Amino acid sequence: MVSKTDNLNNFVHAFGAARLLIQKANKEGALLEGLALYAALTDGFLRIGLVLKRQIVKKTLEVDDLLISQEKGGQYYTERQIQRMAHAEGIIPQEILDELSALYDKRNDAIHKFFLTGLQYVDLPPFLERYEVMYKALNRIVYDLEAEQIKKGVGMSAPTKTTKEDTLAILRDIAMKIDPKLAETIVVPSKRNRRV
Fold first, then answer.
1. Closest CA to 143 of 12, 47, 20, 52
2. Which residue of 1, 12, 25, 113 lies most exposed, with the fewest beta carbons within 10 A?
3. CB-based burial label for 9 (10 Å; 0-12, 13-18, 19+)
4. How far apart are CA 84 and CA 142, in angstroms?
5. CA–CA gap between residue 180 and residue 117 (Å, rounded)
6. pLDDT at 191
7. Could you give phi then psi for residue 122, rounded to 5 degrees?
8. Secondary structure of the chain: what % helix, strand, coil (to 5)?
């Protein structure tokens, strides 16, 4: 059984992995892959925004597991539900909700209805550019929520001491989401072997 801490760690590490994969897709001209990754990233930003905002409001470390994981056959929130929740809870304004909804429609057309619509592969770059704008806007919103948590000393962003080994472990976990062989190249000293 996976713990809530494991679910949260997996969720957070997926951000770094997805961003690296988007850069790779961009470099290789993989437009459909980039579109899917942008949709996943914007959904992830909204989900973590909901976690952070609720922690601020409730002054807690609590995380709604339905926001950060999806068990086979279990309950879950759809991307559209997450978008509406983020708007209803004051995380995103109406303009961002409208833009994300329109972009998600294009994502669905490209992935699910490529054969059924007039959409062509060459039509995708403008949507990727709009997704990049949304990526930056949502990244800023999450940054501001984290800063608010730090300022108020509440939630999971409250100040902690991070060591070099902690940072290497995080980088290894991000790499693991992309390629386990890449993750093996990141050496994290064990606590037993560290010099004091």
1. 52
2. 1
3. middle
4. 17
5. 37
6. 52
7. -70, -10
8. 70, 0, 30
The pair of three-digit structure tokens given for residue 133, joined into one six-digit string: 């704008």
pLDDT of residue 43: 96
**C-alpha to C-alpha distance for 67 and 54, rounded to whole angstroms:** 11
What integer pLDDT is reported at residue 47 of this predicted model? 96
Tell me the mean pLDDT per 10 residues along the chain, length 196. 69 85 91 94 95 95 90 90 98 98 94 86 93 95 92 82 64 64 62 43
DSSP letter for 161, please.
-
Q: Which phi and psi angles does 52 have, rounded to 5°? A: -60, -45
At residue 55, the pLDDT reads 95
The residue type found at 196 is V
